[in-house]
């Protein structure tokens, strides 16, 4: 892999009060990659993703993005530089329409023609959503709401998309659909860091993965390597 990574975490530490939730992790993500971060509940995955987005302060170490240290850069400035977060629980505006939600994603832009073009791109990727533009978002199914959340993030034209458990609370068939959307976003050249409890599916779709346990990264490898790893199978894929 030539050049330098788009994102690099170096000895990243994050604390809640006196409690260290992330205990010095290293992670690298190259432009164009789809990488997943898996691990049990409470391992520190969401905390890590939030820190990269700038909505969670860090206690130590460094976050490097496109060659710059962005440790204390406010979230809205990271967004403008191309770091977009789809948070756990989706965070859509339930009383606004689907179209209003999508346009919210472009609030920091003023290139009108570019925004309209990106809307069209999102409609092509999410035809289900295009049919529902005037509908109030809170009345959509969980899977459709997740698609709106991803679509909204795409309207900021991200270079790095941070996805926090997009499969949460969705039926298996819907989860498959969401992962297909994630893959098509990756194919468009957006670099993706995906946090997932659904390790099996995440590792199937991702090129590489990191396993997090109690605030530390304990394993890393290609999706296939991790899928075949007995420790991963035992701990996360429900095998003994
Ligand atoms: P989940 O899948 O449940 O989101 P996770 O791997 O994303 O799990 P985090 O949510 O990052 O884990 O939590 C890491 C640790 O930090 C846990 O021990 C959790 O209890 C703690 N924690 C998370 N948020 C807070 C908070 N706002 N205040 C105090 N402790 C927190």
UniProtKB/TrEMBL annotation:
<dbReference type="GO" id="GO:0015658">
    <property type="term" value="F:branched-chain amino acid transmembrane transporter activity"/>
</dbReference>
<dbReference type="Pfam" id="PF00005">
    <property type="entry name" value="ABC_tran"/>
</dbReference>
<keyword id="KW-0813">Transport</keyword>
<keyword id="KW-0472">Membrane</keyword>
<dbReference type="GO" id="GO:0005524">
    <property type="term" value="F:ATP binding"/>
</dbReference>
<dbReference type="InterPro" id="IPR052156">
    <property type="entry name" value="BCAA_Transport_ATP-bd_LivF"/>
</dbReference>
<keyword id="KW-1003">Cell membrane</keyword>
<dbReference type="GO" id="GO:0016887">
    <property type="term" value="F:ATP hydrolysis activity"/>
</dbReference>
<comment type="similarity">
    <text>Belongs to the ABC transporter superfamily.</text>
</comment>
<keyword id="KW-0067">ATP-binding</keyword>
<dbReference type="InterPro" id="IPR017871">
    <property type="entry name" value="ABC_transporter-like_CS"/>
</dbReference>
<dbReference type="InterPro" id="IPR027417">
    <property type="entry name" value="P-loop_NTPase"/>
</dbReference>
<dbReference type="InterPro" id="IPR003439">
    <property type="entry name" value="ABC_transporter-like_ATP-bd"/>
</dbReference>
<dbReference type="InterPro" id="IPR003593">
    <property type="entry name" value="AAA+_ATPase"/>
</dbReference>
<dbReference type="GO" id="GO:0015807">
    <property type="term" value="P:L-amino acid transport"/>
</dbReference>
<keyword id="KW-0547">Nucleotide-binding</keyword>
<keyword id="KW-0029">Amino-acid transport</keyword>
<dbReference type="InterPro" id="IPR030660">
    <property type="entry name" value="ABC_branched_ATPase_LivF/BraG"/>
</dbReference>
<protein>
    <submittedName>
        <fullName>Amino acid ABC transporter ATPase</fullName>
    </submittedName>
</protein>
<feature type="domain" description="ABC transporter">
    <location>
        <begin position="7"/>
        <end position="239"/>
    </location>
</feature>
């Amino acid at each position: 892999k030539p050049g330098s990574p788009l994102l690099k975490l170096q000895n990243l530490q994050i604390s809640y009060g006196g409690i260290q939730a992330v205990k010095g992790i290293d992670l690298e993500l190259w432009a164009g990659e789809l990488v997943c971060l898996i691990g049990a509940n409470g391992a520190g995955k969401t905390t890590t993703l939030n820190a990269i987005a700038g909505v969670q302060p860090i206690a130590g170490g460094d976050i490097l993005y496109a060659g710059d240290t962005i440790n204390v850069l406010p979230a809205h400035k990271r967004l403008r530089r191309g770091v977009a977060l789809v948070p756990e629980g989706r965070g859509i505006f339930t009383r606004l329409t689907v179209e209003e939600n999508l346009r919210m994603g472009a609030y920091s832009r003023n290139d009108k023609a570019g925004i309209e073009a990106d809307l069209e791109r999102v409609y092509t990727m999410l035809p289900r959503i295009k049919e529902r533009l005037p509908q109030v978002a809170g009345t959509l199914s969980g899977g459709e709401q997740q698609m709106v959340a991803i679509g909204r993030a795409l309207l900021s034209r991200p270079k790095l998309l941070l996805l926090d458990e997009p499969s949460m609370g969705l039926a298996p068939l819907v989860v498959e659909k969401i992962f297909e959307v994630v893959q098509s976003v990756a194919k468009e050249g957006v670099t993706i860091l995906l946090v997932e409890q659904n390790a099996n599916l995440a590792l199937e779709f991702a090129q590489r993965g990191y396993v997090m346990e109690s605030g530390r990264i304990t394993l890393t490898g290609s999706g296939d390597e991790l899928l075949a790893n007995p420790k991963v199978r035992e701990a996360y894929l429900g095998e003994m």
